[in-house]
Amino acid sequence: MKVSLIIVTYxxxxxxxxxxxxxxxxxxxxxxxxxxxxxxTKETQQLIESFQQKxxxxxxxxxxxxxxxxxxxxxNKAVKKSSGEYLIFSDGDLFFHPRFxxxxxxxxxxxxxxxxxxxxxxxxxxxRRTRTKKKRFAVPFFSPKIENNRLxxxxxxxxxxxxxxxxxxxxxxxxxLGTWKKDVMAVNGWNEDFSGWGLEDTELVARLFNGGVxxxxxxxxxxxxxxxxxVQSREQVLINQQLLEKTITGKFIKCKNGLTSSE
Length: 263
Prior knowledge:
By secondary structure, this protein is of the alpha/beta class. 31% of the residues lie in helices and 19% in strands. It contains 8 helices and 11 strands. The chain has helices at residues 13-24, 42-52, 71-81, 100-107, 123-131, 181-186, 200-210, 237-250; strands at 3-9, 32-37, 59-63, 86-90, 94-96, 112-116, 118-121, 146-148, 176-180, 214-218, 224-226. Strands 3-2-1-4-9-6-10 form a 7-stranded mixed sheet, with helices on both faces. The two termini are 34 Å apart.
């Protein structure tokens, strides 16, 4: 089984460098990485090129023009480019515990999708990490660097077997999502009607649920660490909320404006 890791980024090369270094430090590698670049400047392109020279697996990039927050559209572009049977989507503010891919691979099952969790680092810890060349990619439970979700820093994989499949909730997020590519194709990918920050990931999760995919939380393993950043603009959230509600109440499986467009 081939696994593609898709990472969204936008004009944050220092964070992307940390993320890519955390991939190099993995116990097990993904088969390819695709950087889904939502319109970054040349600095990000140059960073990716510098990593490509010595990266242990194919490191690819898709890019489109900067026309505001269009994460759904650039993720679809990455899906089209991917060669993996299984896709792991990650936001550009998360770096990975050294056993992240190993843990994720161990939990993949047919007919299921996995939703990951995050440990939130403080602003000061994030700033120190971007300045320091030598980095550890596992942050202990008791570390003062952790600001929120401390329990998610605990790696005890056997505990995950005790968790039951998830019921759908509009509070579920898909910013760290593992799913079969065929299931993403079946719902026509990410809904490109979403622009501006917010809820495009939950809407994809809703359509996958509606299509019969079972969801599990991948917890106490496959740990990720969230790098602090300023809060994104929320000006589109009300419109995006209405789009999400239409999908939930209509029990939609496919979106019209996704990997292919019917408009």
